[in-house]
Amino acid sequence: MIQVIGAIGEWILGNTFSCAVFFTYGAFWLAQGASLMPFFAVGAKYSPTGDALDGVETTGYHATAGLYYIILALVTLVYLICALRTNVCLVLALFFLVIAYCLYGAVHFYTAVGKGAFAAKMEMAAGACNFVLCVPIWYIFVAQMLESIDFPLVLPVGDLSEVIRGRTQKARKGAEDEA
């Protein structure tokens, strides 16, 4: 819910990129939480007996969940490309998140075809990527907290806004060169 509330705040401020990112991952966590709650009976439609717990162990459920993670990986890849104009920390976090989502998709696909031992190894790798992506996120958090109180130490996050110039920056540069 915090990410959804943050997305609303970013929307009010007019920060489209941050708003989209926060809404996407806030919705992901809400869907993830709902899928674990018996009340929503997510696996019931996949179960031959109608029992939700049996349904989450079926091939169909795992294939669908795998596709869900691959779609999340593609959306995150778009965010990664967009983040190339922000900072190194965010790019690194999104890079590892793309890998983690691909690995989680693989976990479900391998489980669907009965290769549970390999799926378990993929899940360990996905967990490692999740751990690694937390490092730059915490670094950004500390940098922003220090900045918010005007702390004398500024932590560099690796500004990329001048590395890949935006369309308006290129137009302005072209106009200056002509003048």
From TrEMBL:
GO molecular function, one term: acetate transmembrane transporter activity
Domain of life the protein comes from: Eukaryota
Parts of the chain that traverse the membrane: 12-31, 66-84, 91-112, 124-142
Signal peptide: none
Keyword Chaperone: no
Chief localization: membrane
InterPro entries tied to this protein: AceTr, Gpr1/Fun34/SatP-like
Bilayer topology: Multi-pass membrane protein
Compartments reported by the entry: Membrane
GO cellular component: plasma membrane
Presence of keyword Transmembrane: yes
Pfam families hit by this protein: Gpr1_Fun34_YaaH (PF01184)
The entry's keywords: Membrane, Transmembrane, Transmembrane helix
Family of this protein: Belongs to the acetate uptake transporter (AceTr) (TC 2.A.96) family.
PANTHER family found in the cross-reference section: ACCUMULATION OF DYADS PROTEIN 2-RELATED, MEMBRANE AMMONIUM TRANSPORTER (ATO3), PUTATIVE (AFU_ORTHOLOGUE AFUA_5G01140)-RELATED
Protein known as: Uncharacterized protein
Organism: Penicillium egyptiacum
